[in-house]
Specification:
Elements: E1 8-9, E2 12-15, H1 19-31, E3 36-39, E4 51-52, E5 60-61, E6 67-68, H2 74-81, E7 86-89, E8 94-97, E9 102-105, H3 111-121, H4 134-140, H5 145-159, H6 168-177, E10 184-187, H7 192-199, E11 203-205, E12 210-215, E13 234-238, E14 243-246, E15 248-251, H8 255-259, E16 264-266, H9 271-279, E17 285-292, E18 303-305, E19 313-315, H10 326-330, E20 335-342, H11 343-349, H12 354-369, H13 377-381, E21 382-389, H14 410-415, E22 421-423, H15 436-453
Parallel strand pairs: 1-14, 2-3, 2-15, 3-11, 8-18, 12-16, 15-22
Antiparallel strand pairs: 4-5, 6-10, 7-10, 8-9, 12-13, 13-14, 17-20, 17-21, 18-19, 19-20
Helix pairs in contact: 1-15, 3-5
């Protein structure tokens, strides 16, 4: 164990203040007789939930923005319990083919679009080698270049990757276990409100980067959790050499942090778990926020998938204005369109200058929304651009995990507790669910595993009412 001198002590330490970590801590706080602390490497809470203010009258979401699915959702249960509202959106609203400069809606899809949707709708019936990529399978089945591009833009990009990396086995697993429905929803307030609600009342240490975790490799005979002044089973050492002792650790860091070896484990994680970590994949994504002085798109428009476009998907959502601050008043008339780019295209975009990204983005929007009166509506109304490249976020380094070519059961291997060390976070979801509710579900699972592994006298397994 690490040097115990001048050591802080807590009952449970949660590493990572994203959705999974905060929810695990909230639940544990209500059922563990002792203190729970969350340690976060960065200076901010929320992990991949981030936003930027002052560009338009509402907060612009730089990370997740939509709630995917309304049914069987931990997130929606929380939203409903807090009395918040959501708005349902139809996805996608429109398709724009940049090569031919033609459009269609979800009501009059082309034959190529219909064939691609049919392929993904019936993915469970696809009987191919599990190591194959979706692109390989589609091409073997006669898909043309247009269909490959539609699949790239409508599916791979949405999953946060590129079509050659989208794996059949995990795609089928995600399809089998998805139980949230197909609705796209937006919350009536910034997603930071969810983070604030989860974090309220918790002990959280920011700028505290876990560099080494020492843990009891086995939990024998159901030890008591939070024995007063008892010897702690785990120790976490941070970047400054400070030590935190605890009875159990819940690790919720992004997959890339484990893959890059940022945290040393003692004893080392077993080979099977290290293998799963290496095989599960997490790509990157970029959000391009384009701000305009006035709206030039129809009021009914909100989203478009854009095959062969520089920006594969764009959307324009509005939120209630809740601030009377000077920055909100200064931007009162401004509106924004968001471009979402993932995988290989995001990596290619990161090599461009900001001016190049802006020029190509505006050219696409001018083509999409041109009229006889104004042939370049985006360019003439352009105000500013904000680019969020998630590969450059130091303690995340990417977007989220996606259905990849990992082996069946790899996510369960990653999720398995290692003695007094427990794992949560979207990469540990057995249903290959990188959505917000998936992250919350893994935090809930970790809490239950701790209660099952330790003797916790006088407590129940009821969830926190938050």
């Amino acid at each position: 164990m690490a040097n115990m001198a001048a050591m802080d002590e807590r009952t449970v330490a949660v590493v990572g203040a994203g959705l999974a970590g905060l929810y695990a801590a909230r639940l544990l706080k209500d059922v563990v007789p002792g203190s729970v602390v969350v340690v976060e490497a960065s200076g901010d809470l929320g992990g991949r939930v981030k936003e930027v203010d002052g560009l338009v009258p509402w907060s612009l979401q730089l990370g997740p923005e939509f709630i995917h699915g309304k049914e069987n959702s931990v997130l929606m249960d929380l939203v409903d319990s807090w009395g918040w509202e959501t708005k349902e959106l139809e996805w996608p609203d429109k398709y724009y083919f940049a090569d031919s400069k033609t459009t269609c809606t979800s009501e009059n899809e082309t034959e190529d679009i219909e064939k691609v949707h049919e392929f993904f709708d019936n993915i469970l019936d696809v009987d191919e080698a599990e190591g194959a990529s979706v692109e390989e399978i589609m091409r073997r089945r006669g898909a043309n270049d247009a269909q490959i591009e539609i699949a790239e833009v409508c599916y791979a990009n949405d999953f946060g990757t590129s079509l050659p990396d989208l794996g059949l086995a995990e795609l089928k697993q995600e399809k089998r276990e998805w139980s949230n429905g197909e609705k796209y929803l937006v919350l009536d307030r910034p997603l930071s409100c969810v983070i604030d609600r989860l974090a309220s009342g918790l002990e959280i240490w920011t700028d505290w980067q876990a560099k080494r975790i020492e843990y009891a490799g086995a939990v024998d005979g159901k030890p008591t959790l939070a024995t007063p002044k008892g010897e702690k089973r785990c120790a976490i050492v941070n970047q400054r050499g400070e030590v935190l002792a605890c009875d159990a650790v819940v690790l919720t860091v992004p997959l890339t942090i484990l893959q890059d070896g940022d945290i040393e484990f003692s004893p080392p994680l077993r080979p099977e778990k290290r293998g799963a970590i290496s095989r599960i994949a997490m790509s990157t994504a970029t959000k391009v926020v384009l701000v305009f002085e006035s709206q030039f798109w129809p009021e009914s428009f909100w989203d478009a998938c854009c095959p062969f476009g520089f920006l594969p998907e764009i959307w324009a959502t509005k939120y209630p204005i809740r601030s009377e601050s000077p920055s909100a008043q200064a931007s009162a008339r401004r509106v924004a369109i968001i471009g979402f780019v993932a995988g290989d295209r995001a990596r290619a975009m990161s090599q461009l200058s900001k001016d190049e990204v802006v020029a190509s983005s505006l050219a696409q929007l001018d083509e999409m929304f041109a009229s006889r009166i104004n042939p370049s509506p985006a360019t003439s109304s352009f105000s500013s651009c904000y680019i969020k490249d998630w590969s450059q976020e130091p303690f995340i380094r990417g977007a989220y995990t996606f259905p990849c070519k990992a082996r069946g059961g790899d996510r369960r291997l990653l999720a398995e507790p290692a003695g007094a060390l427990f794992f949560a976070g979207e990469a540990t979801h057995s249903g290959v669910n990188p959505c917000m509710q998936g992250a919350l579900e893994t935090g809930q699972r970790a809490m239950q595993e701790i209660l099952e592994s330790f003797e916790v006298a006088g407590t129940s397994k009821n969830q926190s009412k938050l």
